[in-house]
Here is the input.
Amino acid sequence: MNPSQKNPPPSPFRAEGITLVIAQSPRYFPHVERHLRSLRKVFAKVSLIYWEKDPREPLYTLEAIEVTRVVLPFGAGGAGFYLRLMAGFFLRLWRARPKHVEAVDPEGLIPARLLDWFFPARITYFSMEYYSELPSLRAKPFKRRVWKALERWGASRVAAAATVCDSIAEHLSRDFAMPVLTVRNVPERAPYLKAAARDPSASTLALRCGLSPEAPIAIYQGMLQEGRGLEATVAAIALLPEIHFALVGPGPLRKPLAEMAERLGCAARVHFLGETPFADMIALTRGAFAGLAPFQPLSTSYVYSLPGKLFEYAQAGLPVVSFALPEMRKVIEGYGIGICLAESTPRALADALARLLSESRDPKSRTALATRLERAQRELCWEAEEAKYLELYRGIR
Here is the structure.
């Protein structure tokens, strides 16, 4: 027998290590980089395949990570877009043929499941939201059923699964007939500590808005889209002549919100700062007196939302205003770091912001809030949460 047949070399077509597949850009979604850095603690080789909407953007890079991308500049939405996106992911997975895949949301899961037909791989599924119950699908029952069926089919071969909160984990556990772990979408604490030391004045946000450092600014970071309570917030700002509102992110509501602010006479106090890399977000956020996460219960996914921005506000030292949705209420009221509103009205939002502004100017209230935030910052950070995430890869060494 040929000696090479006794101990055949590893296949040159099958890479050792893990590939993370995600339909988001790591520039704007920091959980991608957190996962990659944590995976490096388990795998000798870590690769990333991601979606980029703007071909002018340089390829994202991270030390010791092999990166490829699918560039689709024609906007999101529609069956044609998702078919091309997932085909692009599948072709790149086919070339790499990884033994392990972490697939984020159905756009990453379905190509990974297809790959498993041809080249068996250990698939870990990470759901960032209750995808089949998003507001965008609530009036489209056929599409919702299709996405739900595809997600279940993809999950039928996963070795482990996780999502961002307990309520969604319970739903997905029933949908997939398997345990689903909760790993919260919390930021690393270290960058916020460094930003505080480097920029004690916290005036970057005011500069971007063209305001004096003393101007009181409430901030919202994330997509400008339906169900985020942004229309009610702009209407609330119209009732508060002293307060400015900074919106950091892209989305289809930018123009309608700008037109609304113009009609209500508060356009000069509503500032659209556009999509901003996360590396620049920390300094911006620290310049506000309050962070807004007023998600509305438009769908099951939003009812149980626990967005990363909530934890990012806390790490930046801001109290949070949200509506009284169960997962956000558990955090905000549990740690005493903000206000959960029973009513999603402009008046209720205005009263909450006025109260937080008044408390930000009172030394005793500031000290009490800082104490509560310090506990939240210590416990609601990736340095504390990472161990749960690595449970998905227990035994892989």
